[in-house]
Amino acid sequence: MIKRIFTPIKKEDIKDLKAGEEVLINGTIFTARDAAHKKFSELFKKTGKLPIDLRGAVIYYAGPTPPRRGGAIGSCGPTTSSRMDSFTPLLLKKGLAGMIGKGGRSEYVRNAIKKHGAVYFIAIGGIGALLSKKVNSSKAVLFKDLGTEAVYKLEVKDFPVIVGIDPKGRDVYAKK
Question: Which of 61, 92, 110, 152 has its CB 3.0 to 4.6 Å from that of 101, i.e. a possible disulfide?
Fold first, then answer.
């Protein structure tokens, strides 16, 4: 049976997830790619704060395209997660509960996920148009000057993902 998770994520809702399980995410998620992560880091270094509250939040490593007629969003497929690895431990420390992307993560990030009891979800690459049908609304909320790399607030219903790294640090990409 596929598990449903609602945002903001509570630790007790994800603590028993296992790498490889299928999950449907419901609620608010934020998009953020490389440029937004760099701005998060710069702002934190400058002010000691992040521009959004990440406690229990999920960040989707995606840069959605403009919406098609009648749609909430255009294509919104995942991007390679390892490009965010240098920024991820800080965001986890500030309360980030989940990330969605594609591909493996560094050992450093895997350990940070385990330390903070978070989860890394994998979205299937190449199906951005299909994933867009799971987005009910989309609004740029930060760094609008970055265009498609701005931070978008998405409202999703039954957004399909696979647990890539679970809160215990088990990783679907780890060699057995």
Answer: 61
Give me the number of domains the chain comprises.
1
Residue 22 lies in a domain: yes
Residue 171 belongs to a domain: no
What is the DSSP pairing of strand 151-165 with strand 119-122?
antiparallel
> For residue 98, which of 77, 119, 115, 84 has the smallest C-alpha distance?
119
**Residue 32 forms part of a structural domain:** yes
- 77 CB-near residues (< 8 Å, 6+ apart): 62, 123, 125, 126, 127, 128, 131
Write the CATH number for 113.
Answer: 3.20.130.10
Distances (CA, A) of 19 to 2, 16, 111, 129: 13, 10, 14, 25
Q: Quick one: average pLDDT of 13-37?
A: 96
Q: How far apart are CA 150 and CA 37, in angstroms?
A: 10
Give the model confidence (pLDDT) of 58-111 as tens digits: 999 998 888 888 888 888 899 999 999 999 999 999 999 999 999 999 999 999
The answer to whether residues 123 and 80 touch, using CB atoms and an 8 Å cutoff, is: no
| Full domain range(s) for residue 133 | 3-165
**Token pair 């240098």 is at which residue?**
86
Structure tokens given for 80: 């390679």
